[in-house]
Amino acid sequence: MKPMLVLKRMKNVIAAMGGIFILSAALSACTNSAANSGMMAFPPQTLPVFQVHPTNASTTEEYTASLEGTKNVDIRPQVSGYLQQIYVDEGAFVHKGQPLFRIDAKVYQAQLDNAKANLLAAKANEENAQINVSKLQPLLQANVVSDVQMKSAQAALDASKASVAQAEAMVQNASINVGYTEVTAPVDGYLGKIPYKLGSLVGSTDAQPLTVLSEVADVYAYFSMSEQDFLAFKDRYKGATVEDKIRQMPPVQLVLSNGSVYAEKGKVETVEGQFDKNIGAISFRVLFPNPNGLLRTGNTGKIRIPTQQAQVMVVPQEATFELQDKVFVFAVGDSNKVASKPISIAGTSGNYYLVKGGLNTGDKLVYTGLDRLRDGVVIVPQPMSLDSLITARPL
Q1: Which residue among 208, 227, 257 closes a domain?
Q2: Could you give the CA distance from residue 352 to residue 345 in angstroms, rounded to a whole number?
């Protein structure tokens, strides 16, 4: 290639590279200028800020519970026989004394009739023996009959009276068996499943009852505490004994399976004497009124126990954010710069966190707008009163 042609091409390359460098410098200058002008265009945010201070609050503890009627009665037949009549349906509400089932009574009615006939015969024998004694009494006084004959007649009378008593007992027993053929409700309540059908042979030794009757004017809720919770319970309430401490417990709530709170409050009544060694827990029993029959045996829910907390820090939940399973707040420091701080939660009360660590009295926290903040950002604090917020939206 000719030297003049090579030199010309090199000049063109150098010129092109110089143009690219100039263009890049110009773009960089424009970018920096735009960035600088953008930072100057956005003033510090004005955000509501409140001061934290200790206050009294109430927390709640929840425990899984199962419900039972105060009386769950297995309805079993007292006599054996074929199921002749079923007067009720599964799930029905029945009253005490209401007929539920009828067992074929023919055999027991025949036994009753036979017992009554035996009673009549025994009474006839007694009357005959009484006549003999009455006839011998004047003859004995006239020395016509011996004393031995009189004693023999009296013994026959006594035996006939015993036979009458025995026959009366047989009549009563047969009458009871006839009465047992009609099975009635021992208490008011709701019926469970009825596994037997008409014509089934039933008896008192059957493993399965005719049905189960639950009295649910009041219901029991059973829940368990771990050993740690039980020790905390004993420290929390006054009293020399566990029974004294239970009497000091406030009324508790029942949270139903759909998340709603049952209208009636319950009272903790008893606690078991021993821990269950298999699960390491101890069981409590709560009594709830059930005037509308809403609660049934087998229901589940949660027992909510309120606990008073004295002089704890309270922070609205909207003034917090979570990061890696920890709860943080933005605290306002010198020069109105914000910094994130982790806090330790002791419990909740309504829409508030009760804080046991991470805050000091007088700390200033950002209430809302946390999603627009990061550490070191300067804000314009807009003071607000935490007490006013708690008044408007109580703990």
Answers
A1: 208
A2: 10
Look at the chain and count its residues. Answer: 395
Q: Which tens digit of pLDDT belongs to each residue from 22-55?
A: 434 443 444 444 444 444 547 899 999 999 999 8
Q: How many domains does the chain have?
A: 4
Are 386 and 52 within 8 A, CB to CB?
yes
> Same domain, yes or no, for 326 and 236?
no
Q: C-alpha 16: how far from its chain's center?
A: 83
| Statement to judge: residues 193 and 96 lie in one domain | yes
Separation in Å, CA 75 to CA 122, 168, 190: 37, 29, 12
Token pair 């009360």 is found at: 349
For residues 230 and 235, give the distance between their C-alpha atoms in angstroms, rounded to a whole number: 9
Are 379 and 46 in contact by the 8 Å Cβ rule? The answer is yes
The structure tokens listed for 58 are 């109430």
Distance CA 44, CA 392 (A): 29
Q: What are phi and psi of 78, to 5 degrees?
A: -90, -15
Q: Nearest CA to 163 among 135, 193, 121?
A: 121
d(CA 287, CA 68): 10
pTM: 0.60
What the block records as the tokens of 21 is 């460098």
